[in-house]
Amino acid sequence: MSNAAKNPSIIRRSFRRTIFFIIAILAVGSTFEPYNQAQLAVVLIYFIGVLSVTILTGISGQISLGQGALMAVGGYTTALLMTNYSISLWIAVPASIIGAGIAGALLGIAAARLSGPYLAGTTLVIALAIPTIANRFMSVFKGDEGLPVDVGYPPSWFTNLFGEPTYEEWQLYVVLPFAAIALFFASNLLLSRTGRMWKSIRDHETAAALTGVNYSRQKIYVFIIASIFAGLAGALYGLRGLVGPSVYPVALSLTLLTAAVLGGIRSIFGAFIGTVIVVFLPDWIDLVLDNFELSEQVSNFMPALISSLLLILTVVINPAGVAGGHHHKHK
Amino acid sequence: MDTFLAALFSGTSRGAIYALVALGLVIVWRGAGVVNFAQMGQAMFSTYIASTLIQNGNSYWVGFFVALFAGAALGALLDVLVMRPLSNKKKTELLSSESMRAAIPVIASLGILGVLQALAGIIWAAEERGFPAPAAQEGFTVAGSVMPFTSFDLFVISIVLITLTLTTIFFKRTGVGLAMRATALNQEVARLSGIRTNFTRTLSWAISGAASSLAGLLITPTSNLSPNTLDLVLIIGFTAAVVGGLDSPAGAVLGGFILGLVISFVTFYLSPEDVFISILAVLLIVLIVKPRGILGGKDSRRV
User: Fold this and answer.
1) Do B276 and A129 touch (CB under 8 A)?
2) Residues of A with CB below 8 A from B242's CB?
3) Residue B171 falls within a domain, yes or no?
4) B-chain residue closest to A207, CA distance
5) pLDDT tens digits along A231-269
6) Can you list the domains of chain A with their CATH numbers?
7) B231 CB neighbour count, 10 Å cutoff
8) How close B239 comes to chain A (CA, Å)?
9) In this structure, is residue B17 part of a structural domain?
10) Is B100 exposed, middle or buried (CB count within 10 Å of its CB: 0-12, 13-18, 19+)?
11) I need a surface site. Which of A98, A178, B6, B300 has the fewest CB within 10 A?
């Protein structure tokens, strides 16, 4: 009874968040010049990937350093469908979910037995190993060259209705619906019974088991769902021009984790804030550094130095991240 | 047969270095409960210091020992500046669950790695440079044929074995070593029995820093030195520690040699492209059979 009364309100809340998100992105995006519109598209893509870290690590307590590998799986699924069968991206991108979901199920079956650093180690090696498969099966994956794919051009009904967008603007419009759907699902998940079940696994496995949660099975589900988010992000990331091993390096997995922690690893809003920081921070630092006379050797490394320092400071001063601090509510 | 010997020797020599890296990781994991991803960043930094000293006309051994000392000092400094304040946050709600306690220090160490690499780039520029070896890198000649084993390999293996023996003696036979084992076992109880746990933590960071600097000094003659070259060594060393069991120094050494041999045999008999997939296969097989590594503790659950 109480469940039936609650569920519509969860969906309504998620829906409201999503609508607000779409309007905010469109409003901000339309004021940007092309370079920043492309950057905003990257924010949305990373945001989907960071949501997978939020679900996996922040909500369910499973640490993964290999989400980049699942992004690669999603990217290759989409790219192969688009280049070999010339399927439209509106079908090929959602299809990436299937590839990534299967990979996530396999990973989850192995990972359900592991904990803490053992899981971190395994996922890190996965991040390193999966992209090298592209070189092993040259004929299918084309090795280091990769598979070139892009978002193409808007259909005629779109240009008739809204006028001719720039390529960067079109990139943003392609990514936005997927990001909005991802946000809607993540928000629903976090507010729902399933989300609470996963939080109970994070907080105490034995206590969760005593309340009737089959945590081994739930962990596999967690990995599948998180992989789906990662795969979707990877498919869209590849559409920026190329799907290849160099597009999905180990550093990508670590960037996702960094963004999740900077913003606040337990909240969707935090995931978005963290992503904005990670994507735009190098640009902001460049802006500030332009005012100083620095040699090239120094200015090349300043953005990395400052963002790493910020990361350390965030973790030491406030490990709950920018959006953290009100978590006692969920206790 | 020649290929087999070459693979065996190069695997043993590489494996010795991975064992050293894994040992450094295990020491910090046991002593401070942190998987230190910055470890090879620290090693890179002290190897650059040694390289600069040697380029300025000092002997190899001056650079060698200064680098070890710098590695230890840097490790201790990082613990005092970053990890100790972080561990004081353990009472906050976010860090109350085990998974977060494992995740947050990992992220802090990634930050440290970023800072060290950027600083190295600013100070020494990013281009690769070579690093000298103290012993010849040509193979021994036995009965007219060149063996795939160099005196530098011999140097690497003997130095690593000496280090491993010294660390074992340190942990088993000295009072400080005993205090560190007690801290690793149970920090609260160790503190109650009068052990200065902050000191033993910092000490484990220092020892691990020196060990990984040694690994850096030994591996850079065969690769090159740049801010990022040691990243891969860290990942392989970490895998070695996980395969052997993160709680066990002996396991780390075992894991190091296993991975060294696997990598070497795959490179010689299959192709270098298969190396990472084989590492993954080894890791998965070991962890599916023993989720806490070959020599790791039992997977016990406390309610």
Assistant:
1) yes
2) 117-118, 121-122
3) no
4) B303
5) 999 999 998 888 888 889 888 888 898 888 888 888 889
6) 2-330 (1.10.3470)
7) 18
8) 6
9) yes
10) buried
11) B300
